[in-house]
Amino acid sequence: MSGEIYMAAVGALAYEKRLQIISNNLANSNTVGYKQDHGRFRILDLSALPEGSTQNGVPLNPAQTELFWNQFNVYTDHTSGSLKNTGNDFDLALVGQGFFCVQTQDGIHYTRKGDFTLDENGVLVTRNGWPVMGESGEISVDSEEDPNQHKKFSVDEEGNITVDGNQVDSLRLVDFPKPYKLTKVGEALFKPTDSGRGEVQAENVRVSQGFIELSNVDAVKMMTEMIEVLRGYESYQKIIRSVDEVNSKAINEIGQMT
After folding, report:
1. Dihedrals φ, ψ of 80, to 5°?
2. Rounded distance between C-alpha atoms, residue 189 and residue 253, angstroms
3. Torsion angle of alpha carbons 196, 27, 107, 86, nearest 10°?
4. b/e map of 162-175 (b: 16 or more CB within 10 Å)?
5. How many angstroms separate the CA atoms of 6 and 46, rounded?
6. 204 with 97: CB under 8 angstroms?
7. SS3 for 154?
8. CA distance 79 to 221
């Protein structure tokens, strides 16, 4: 493959990855607590790298430029989404930086998706049935005398939980050092990456009961970006076709001359 076609193909691949990210953002624009992703890539000029630079421990040289010129990665935008008033006592939103803790089969995961509910045992859970964690463990709201009779459930701005006026627990609210080293695991849940630092107590965060945090996806902006990416992808396709036509013409002319 010629260098021109290779570079155009790598550029088209980067745009294809961006298109996948944008499509996923748009698909989750109405998902409570969803955080949008962005893609970015940079071109490496090996001639500008310090002597002895390596890629995965292997020394680099200018002849390898086409192998490593493009680095693509995805990062998550953790800015807060707008709040929506639902009037549901079990809907909780965080104002500020922090996460709810959720007990899953793979351990504690973290989320901003606060559209909670009660399971058949009166335990506060996510829509997928994972228990929401308080400082003392799972949070139970049911009456001991009558499991089918739910008591008055209230959460203040500090995350303190009261049932019929009696404090029973406090929400376990945590945060992580910046920049966040968190990985998405689906269902608007996150877990720390292997290299990520551990959780710390969330500060300067408030709980709003009866509200949910909406996705931070700007659908109009995403649609505009999608059009831009599609045009860029088409431009790379045209470059590949043009270079291929030039090469084919050159080969045919050389064949006729011989």
Report:
1. -70, 145
2. 59
3. 110
4. ebeeeebbbbbbbb
5. 17
6. yes
7. strand
8. 15
Token digits of residue 222: 């995403």
How far is 169 from 167, CA to CA, in rounded Å? 6
- Residue 108's alpha-carbon distances to 98, 124, 198, in angstroms, are 15, 15, 12
> 99: which DSSP letter?
E
pTM: 0.78
Write out the H or E segment, with its range, that includes residue 117: strand 117-118
Q: Which amino acid is at 53?
A: S
Q: Which helix (H) or strand (E) holds 22?
A: helix 3-27
pLDDT in tens, 11-38: 777 888 889 999 999 999 999 999 999 9
- The closest of 95, 73, 76, 69 to 28, measured between CA atoms, is 76
Task: Find where tokens 């992808």 sit.
Answer: 233
| The token pair that represents 132 in the structure block | 């929401």
Q: 108: which 2 tokens?
A: 């504690």
132 vs 99: CA distance, rounded Å: 11
| pLDDT tens string 86-108 | 999 999 999 999 999 999 999 99
Contact 143, 153 (CB under 8 A): no
Q: How far is CA 250 from the centre of its chain?
A: 47
b/e 113-146 (16+ beta carbons within 10 angstroms → b): bbbbebeeebbbbbeeebbbbbeeeebbbbeeee
**Whats the size of the chain, residue-wise?**
258
137: left (phi over 0), alpha (psi -120 to 50) or beta: left
How far is the C-alpha of 12 from the C-alpha of 237, rounded, in Å?
Answer: 7
